[in-house]
Design a protein that fits this description.
The structure is a homodimer of 294-residue chains.
Chain A lengths: L9 E4 L5 H10 L4 E4 L7 H5 L3 E2 L3 H6 L3 E4 L4 H9 L13 E4 L5 H12 L4 E4 L2 E2 L1 H7 L2 E6 L2 H11 L3 E8 L3 H29 L4 H8 L7 H12 L8 H18 L4 H15 L10 H5 L3
Parallel strand pairs in A: 1-2, 1-4, 2-3, 4-5, 5-6, 8-9
Antiparallel strand pairs in A: 7-8
Helix pairs in contact in A: 8-10, 8-11, 11-12
Chain lengths: 294, 294
Amino acid sequence: MTLLNSKPRVAFIGLGIMGNPMAGHLLSAGYPLTVYTRTHKRATELLERGATWADSPAAAAKVADVVFICVTDTPDVKSVILEEHGIINSARRGLIVVDHSTISPSATQAMAKALAEKGTHLLDAPVSGGDVGAKNASLSIMVGGERNAFEQVFPILQKMGKTITHTGPSGSGQLTKLVNQILVSVTNLAVCEALTLAKAGGLDLKKTIDAVAGGAAGSWQLNNLGPKMIAGDDAPGFMIDLQLKDLRLTLEAAEKAGVNLQAAGLVTRLFETAKDRGLGKAGTQALFHVVSQD
Amino acid sequence: MTLLNSKPRVAFIGLGIMGNPMAGHLLSAGYPLTVYTRTHKRATELLERGATWADSPAAAAKVADVVFICVTDTPDVKSVILEEHGIINSARRGLIVVDHSTISPSATQAMAKALAEKGTHLLDAPVSGGDVGAKNASLSIMVGGERNAFEQVFPILQKMGKTITHTGPSGSGQLTKLVNQILVSVTNLAVCEALTLAKAGGLDLKKTIDAVAGGAAGSWQLNNLGPKMIAGDDAPGFMIDLQLKDLRLTLEAAEKAGVNLQAAGLVTRLFETAKDRGLGKAGTQALFHVVSQD
């Protein structure tokens, strides 16, 4: 195993609500940082703090030992890695690419294979914990790909996340994230239906949560989204549009694996209804409006 | 408010897997205890410890200030309260009846009304926490009915439970329990579907739980039933037959309240499939066999 320098050169591609604070942590930790993002002005603060601008993913990868990607969907990652000015054009032996986006596990495996032909490792490393986790460097990071490459970037990942798990071969990080999204969304639906019955039956909703949250009914979703549902607070934590994107990836992966996930299918249809009602940019707790038909 | 004596006479009707240890706690706390249960030999240990046998619910209520009931379903409670040798025949001003069974909220309200005509209070006080909670006196108890009556029995309930909540008027304890059961069963389904995709995709299931349980995907069901699903351990905590009974009460209550709970409906159908496969006496984690089609 080739150990990276203690301060390898890093690049970060995609400076959105997640990528921006994550890249900031790398800069704070003293890693020489090059950035690229579609909307240049999103990089302003990082450039002022000492980051270097690159004009394309290929240009960023050229001057880095490790390239991090944090964009939205499968086509975005394909564009960053495979297209005309993509990373593949400056891919070389020893380069490690770490993709923090949540995308298709099978597309991940195909890109890992394409990069491997140039001696470059692709690690799929989707995160959970939202913008708060990104800001606090407390993300959970689920990493698929070769263990050797994982071990080399582990000290860098520790600057951005708290629970960092090597889940297995290429694609397994993405699959673990989709498993996570089944739990998150179906448990959210459980909370929506529970509070719907409580409300229709005239119960005091806050008292109801207090009475049940400490036992077998308890969950992060109940503790964190339940009070927002009661308050009618739709501000995102995690946006319905993104939850829907992840659920579509989940149902695709389930179909490929030959399993039928009925509850994941149901919650997907309900989130689609929420989107149709104009709630795509609302937090996932806004599903309560659809379930309770308020 | 008429305060009960510091050691009111108590009666306990229904000495099953829950009722037996609950009644035992009352005896240990020094309350004079009378018991009645359909199968006499279930009372043996309590009688040896000093409890008194009564030949019917009416006979038990006659010599008690507070009567506790812990049986299975709505018809059982109706039989204990309303039928020929039922409590109603010795109901009188000041008697308090506490029903720990999980039954229909509307049937509860009707029985409360019938008892109220004799000056007797009925409190609906379903519990969660299972046989372990009953043994450890750590049950959650959700109590509907008049606050005055609740306050009188509160010190006695503290001998059996830890989280004791007055949820509101008659029937609200039962409704809160049904809300609890939606959360428990739909979150269980979330865990089943998540582990089904993980298994089909070849993930290490234990590692998968460890990677996601600390975040927004976390729940009691994941922490407690997930490992049993992985191990193929179907031993009950909470039996599928009882979960199904509670889900039927839930769907009835939802229909009466005019709300449509699709996930609760789905998980009910899946538990029915489990029962059809001979898993009625298994723990609720055995739902994983149905969802993963193993």
